[in-house]
Write a structure and sequence with these properties.
0% of the residues lie in helices and 53% in strands. The chain has 112 residues and is an all-beta fold. The strands form 2 sheets. Strands 2, 4, 5, 6, 9, 10 and 11 form a 7-stranded mixed sheet that branches.
Length: 112
């Protein structure tokens, strides 16, 4: 069983920064891919970024260059540093661990 607990969401002005964190527990974390997805109101959940166990990262085009994903394998945590935030980044952000484990979501709101 895998449990994911997210933190760090909130309200920020456009151009600002936020850092999301996700703490994972469970025997399936080792070697798992970890990442973030988001879901805006009225939209489908979409991919944001993932990071493999050795640290290979991938990003959605809409966040590349602004967001940075990282992980600490000793603490089973994954983080998402979000800079230069835009109103269109407003969404509920979900932590994800392969193959199909999800956090409860944390709200990020970017005001214009």
């Amino acid at each position: 069983q895998v449990q994911l607990v997210e933190s760090g969401g909130g309200l920020v002005q456009a151009g600002g920064s936020l850092r999301l964190s996700c703490a994972a527990s469970g025997t399936m974390i080792s070697r798992a891919i970890m990442g973030w997805f988001r879901q805006a109101p009225g939209a489908q959940r979409e991919y944001v970024a993932t990071i493999s166990w050795p640290g290979t990262t991938n990003y959605a085009g809409s966040v590349k260059g602004r967001f940075t994903i990282s992980r600490d394998n000793t603490k089973n945590t994954v983080n998402l540093q979000m800079n230069s935030l835009k109103p269109e980044d407003t969404a509920v952000y979900y932590c994800w661990v392969s193959s199909n484990y999800w956090g409860q979501g944390t709200q990020v709101t970017v005001s214009s």
